[in-house]
Write a structure and sequence with these properties.
mainly alpha; Helix Hairpins; 12 helices
């Protein structure tokens, strides 16, 4: 391993050793689970920072995520389950097995070819490693229930699409989208609360299918929109503050004017970036 990596492993071992940090010494696989999830989402968010020219945020979040891996591996070593060397060796073997077109003689020329071959590679890997599998009654059982809803929906529809349970084209999904919107309107008109919730869920599910068909990752797309909303709303707040107004003291018309001003600013910045990259 590298000097920096080895030093991180040693720091974690010291924190867990007698005389180390009381909090670190108390942690278990279970107690750390929430932090692993939090760091993964913060890393996911920092990817957008990197795309916007701020890679230092991603570097920091990757470090925090790596720390969680080292932390779990240290606990595992103390329990004689495995160690960080085993973790590295395992993923190395897996990467070699899943890339026979790089480390072997198999011919896979496109990314789509690789994806189509992925399931076969995973099956071959399980046979070699003798990995114990949970009993699955459906191909959808391979998608963890713990995934965030948008990610889960995307993976469920990908699984179904692999066995041709899918729309032929995006236009058919737009037709389904219009159908779901009409059903939602009907539920709202009838004031059927449970139906409204269900129809909104159906509407979101169709949107995820449309995103998949157009090769858009929905979680990332929504994250970008969330960031855009934050930026534009903060612009509205800032401009009102310059006027000596609070949000409560302003009205929708005033805020809408500032919102449109923020949109124009975004468009100008976007055009400038596009021209700079030409």
């Amino acid at each position: 391993m590298s000097k920096n990596f080895d030093e991180l492993v040693m720091v974690m071992a010291r924190l867990r050793a007698p005389g180390g940090c009381p909090w670190d010494r108390e942690q278990t696989y279970e107690s750390l689970a929430q932090y692993l999830l939090e760091e993964a989402f913060e890393t996911f968010d920092a990817i957008q920072d990197a795309a916007e020219g701020k890679p230092e945020n991603l570097r920091e979040e990757l470090g925090d995520l790596l720390l969680q891996i080292i932390f779990h591996s240290q606990i595992a070593e103390e329990k004689d389950d495995f160690n960080i060397e085993d973790v590295c060796a395992s993923i190395t073997r897996k990467m070699i097995l899943r890339h026979p077109h790089v480390f072997g003689d198999k011919k896979l020329d496109t990314a789509n070819d690789v994806l189509q071959n992925w399931d076969e590679l995973k099956k071959a890997e399980r046979e070699i490693t003798k990995k114990e599998e949970k009993t699955k009654n459906s191909i959808l059982d391979e998608v963890p229930l713990a995934f965030p809803a948008l990610i889960e929906a995307g993976k469920l529809t990908k699984k179904a699409a692999k066995v041709n349970f899918d729309w032929e084209n995006s236009e058919q999904i737009f037709d389904k989208l219009a159908e779901e919107v009409d059903e939602l309107k009907q539920a709202i008109s009838a004031n059927l609360v449970e139906n409204i919730e269900e129809e909104i869920g159906d509407l979101l599910f169709v949107i995820v299918n449309l995103a998949r068909k157009l090769d858009v990752e929905p979680e990332t797309a929504l994250k970008k929109t969330n960031r855009k909303f934050r930026r534009r709303f903060k612009f509205v707040e800032s401009k009102l503050k310059e006027r000596g107004q609070s949000l409560e003291e302003s009205n929708l018309e005033e805020m809408d004017v500032l919102w449109n001003e923020s949109k124009k600013k975004d468009l100008t910045n976007k055009n400038f970036k596009n021209q700079s990259s030409d």
